[in-house]
Amino acid sequence: MTDSSSPTSGFHFPAEWEPQSAILLAWPHPGTDWADRLAGVEDTYIALVAAITRFQDAVVCVADENVQAYARARLASARVDMERVRFVEVPYDDTWLRDSGPITLRGPEGFRLLDFRFTGWGGKFEAGLDDRLVEALSEGGVFNDGKRQDIDFALEGGAIETDGEGTLLTTYRCLAERHPDASREELSRRLGGWLAQDRVLWLDHGYLEGDDTDAHIDTLARFAAADAIVYQACDDATDSHYDELQAMAKELAALRTRDGAPYRLFPLPWPEPVLDEGRRLAASYANFLIINGAVLMPAYGDPADAGAAAVLAEAFPGREIVPVPCRPLIWQNGSLHCITMQLPAGALA
Fold it and tell me: Pfam families, per this entry (predicted)?
């Protein structure tokens, strides 16, 4: 079902740490931009699905039956728990489901699947199939009690963070690039209305070289609780990111919780630069994924990996920290959180 105008009052936008039914992702194949480096990225996907299925289900989008057969064989040979893997055949341009997948709200009578416009990050890449992904999944019966709400407004899931209590965290750079004629106040009002949020916190600083999302929040700063934020820090004064990430850290320190207290802040260590034919790649530890009972952490084969795991363990007490090798992902300028989308408990049919 599709609803283009229903208000979201009475709905709840769950925080990522709330109970989930599954993680949604799409398998890379030769028809995607991963074609040139498919072997390496497949290894990352196998490690990711193996990690997810230790704790909950994975819903894997596949382009056709051949891709499904191949993915099933690769996962099974890696001894992944296939009872927790569900394949869904659906067309897609690429595999960044954080930005093309559904943003799911829980309501009194079921779920609302918010289907914003996906424009390939402001028209940088072809996105026609990805823009229709939520509709295709909905029509395919993937969701339980889910009414799709088609919203004619460009927004990617990686651009927003919620604490599950009505506070949204985002970056002005990204939203202003998508909507240059909209004021900050108008953007706050519209985002708050659609996403059932009554506070929008904006960051004016923060970026990563190699990031083509125009500063998605999920590469920079993430809620760990309603009063806690984990963020990507930079302590190397010689690095080109230093001034901008230091300024972002000061912005975060100035933010206040709903109760007026400063947030508990958890700075993540800064990895060594990762270069690809001279191009700096966007390696961020802030691009972690919270699942039931665990936090999956992007690992880059860097000495800072261990320090990042320690910070996340402190920020998420009681959850297992599971490193996933993500160096192949940053070749396409994203990481672990970018290729996944969580489905809240009860949302999966």
Answer: PAD_porph
